[in-house]
Design brief:
Blueprint lengths: L1 H7 L6 H4 L3 H24 L4 H22 L2 E3 L6 H10 L5 E3 L8 H28 L5 H6 L6 H4 L15 E4 L26 H9 L4 E4 L15 H13 L3 H5 L4 H7 L2 H11 L8 E7 L5 E5 L23 E10 L2 E11 L9 E8 L3 H11 L1
Parallel strand pairs: 1-2, 2-3, 3-4
Antiparallel strand pairs: 5-6, 5-7, 7-8, 8-9
Helix pairs in contact: 1-3, 6-9
């Protein structure tokens, strides 16, 4: 090919006559080289048997798939994807940076156990091996490592592990498990006994504390079964947690976000559950909803879809000025259930009583009627 190129390329001794710089002449030579290569490869393919040609095409397709897998940084699957395909793609995409499994119906507590026992250790070994190879062979490119994930190197096999202690591993991985209602109080399988408090341990907390130093971030937004009142929760998030628990008819998780003053009037839990089911049946098993944050009873701040169905994402609320004495936020929640549509006013305040200091909790929930409708009803009665 290079012999053919030398006969068809320009004579660089006459560059002044042509009027092109040296870099342009080199670009022309490279273009001619690739053109001749394409012609030679096409000529060779004409003499191949269809079986051999099929084998070559399959090899090329395999290399293209490896390149695509190495270049893909985001994994986002359907909300109804089973666990096994999710595990397959997570293991296949070696360089993935964002794993979005929000609203998935099949992600459960056993999936978290798989993350800690299998996926994250394999991810750490893969990244550590690549860092070790780059440290020993600076000439090896990232693309070559991606196309050859299993590189047998005799120097690597005899490498001392003590030299890698100074290497910091940063996976830069974000795992979005928001609104995955299959995750509850995770219990690690025990060989004997049940362990932990009431049969459960802090498995989720252990998972986060163990892998956060390696650059792994988790998002458990909206998972009401594993989230308790905390000063880190925003008021809008508290409303969404209560609504999600009512959607699945788990009133006990809605009750835990009620303020101490609210519990005195509506508790205990059996009485609270009867009140919700008999007095507010629209809140149970709703199909679609919308949250609006308001400054007062008359002025609306924002109208953002929050969790209108199982396939939509949630959005953070718009914060307003807090009352220094006792910060209170009001939300208008529009509930859709079958052919019915009702509005409720959610009042959330920051608590000052132990053990809920600085926690946003619900003080009251009551039906809400627009001012125009109230005036229309008064006109009809008059």
């Amino acid at each position: 090919l290079r012999r053919s190129l030398s006969t068809k390329s320009f004579d660089h001794t006459h560059n002044d006559d042509i009027g092109l710089p040296q870099s342009a002449m080199e670009d022309i030579d490279s273009c001619l080289f690739y053109t001749i290569s394409y012609d030679v490869i096409g000529y060779m393919i004409c003499f191949l048997h269809h079986r051999e040609l099929h084998t070559i095409v399959r090899l090329i397709d395999k290399q293209c798939n490896l390149l695509c897998d190495a270049a893909q940084k985001t994994l986002r699957l359907s909300t109804h994807t089973p666990i096994e395909p999710i595990k397959y793609w997570m293991l296949k995409l070696r360089n993935v940076r964002v794993i979005d499994l929000s609203h998935n119906d099949h992600v459960d507590s056993q999936f978290l156990i798989w993350l800690r026992k299998e996926f994250f250790p394999l991810k750490l070994k893969f990244v550590e091996k690549n860092q070790r190879l780059r440290h020993m062979h600076p000439c090896v490119s990232s693309a070559e490592l991606d196309l050859n994930p299993i590189i047998v190197d005799h120097n690597l096999m005899s490498h001392d592990d003590n030299s890698d202690q100074g290497m910091a591993i940063d996976l830069q991985l974000h795992v979005n498990l928001s609104f995955c209602f299959g995750i509850d109080c995770v219990e690690e399988p025990q060989l004997y006994g049940r362990g932990g408090v009431n049969g459960h341990n802090d498995y989720l907390k252990k998972l986060i504390n163990l892998y956060t130093p390696y650059g792994i971030n988790f998002n458990f937004y909206g998972n009401f079964r594993i989230i308790n009142p905390s000063p880190t929760l925003q008021p809008r998030h508290v409303v969404e947690l209560q609504l999600c628990s009512l959607k699945l008819s788990e009133v006990q998780h809605c009750f835990k976000f009620a303020s101490p003053a609210n519990r005195q009037f509506t508790g205990p839990l059996p009485r609270f559950e009867r009140m919700i089911k008999n007095g507010y049946p629209t809140l149970m098993k709703w199909t679609r909803m919308q949250i609006v944050e308001v400054l007062d009873d008359n002025s609306h701040i924002s109208t953002e879809p929050t969790l209108s169905d199982a396939n939509e994402d949630a959005y953070d609320g718009v914060t307003t000025q807090d009352d220094e004495a006792r910060p209170i936020k009001h939300f208008i929640v529009e509930i859709y259930k079958k052919n019915r549509r009702e509005k409720f006013k959610w009042s959330v305040s920051k608590q000052k009583i132990q053990p809920y200091v600085d926690c946003w909790m619900t003080d009251s929930v009551c039906p809400y009627y627009d001012r125009e409708k109230i005036v229309a009803r008064l006109d009809m009665t008059m």
